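User: I'm putting together a small comparison set for a docking exercise, and I want a reference complex before I start. The sequence is below, and the ligand is adenosine-5'-diphosphate. Could you produce the 3D structure with the ligand included, as structure tokens?
Assistant: Of course. I'll restate your input first, then give the structure tokens for the complex.
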Amino acid sequence: EAARDVLDQARERGATRLGVEAMPLLDAYGIPTPAGEVVDSPVDALAVAERLGDPVVMKIVSPDILHKSDIGGVKVGVPHEEVYDAFEDLITRARNYQPDATILGVQIQEMVETESGVETIVGTNRDPQFGPLVLFGLGGVFVEVMEDTALRLAPLAESEAEAMLDEIQAAPLLSGARGRDPVDRAAVAETLARLSQLVTDFPAILELDVNPLVARPDGVLAVDLRLTLD
Ligand code: ADP
Ligand code: MG
């Protein structure tokens, strides 16, 4: 099974913190992700970019860098002619931040249209008493500043997941506030349910965050991932 392979390989390298390189875990559970690949040279970066479209998104991939944007480790809208320079720049930034950082490479990712969507977070952690918990809220800085989140025990039925969407104060944003189209609520609920199944199936996953899960009228896309293994 693909999900088990990702976790076994991480364990073999002794990794306990995984990032976007573990995206196949989400694919294995039917959670939609943008096309992307981790590469370790500028030449490969361009080859992948040429497959994915123009422009692309480029992200540093390192277990020592948890918040990539904080060090300028995410470049959105990179045109093909800038892919080489962007690759070198991402590596330089990571090295400047932490000279001995483990760098797995650079992820080349498809651009996601976020304008029509809402950036949400779906996450999980483990309560010593109650077991796996699933969290839903607005993504990005909002989740940290507002603490506007809904929590449930995993595993989660889709109907329970859908109730979580209405629980947050920002719920109107999801149903089309300010003349926007409502997001695909069923797809968000399905993602919460699938994620709750993933962490139920793999007790070794202590914590997992998809931030952002871009929720759009036409579905969802998990754009970023980080998780901790025990
Ligand atoms: P981190 O959370 O480690 O800083 P992310 O991968 O979440 O890195 O990227 C930061 C932000 O960049 C996201 O919240 C999103 O707004 C934007 N972004 C990331 N990937 C994409 C993408 N593929 N398409 C469009 N925007 C993206
Ligand atoms: Mg993120």
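The longest strand covers residues 205-216. The chain is about 35% helix and 30% strand.
User: Thanks, that's exactly what I needed.
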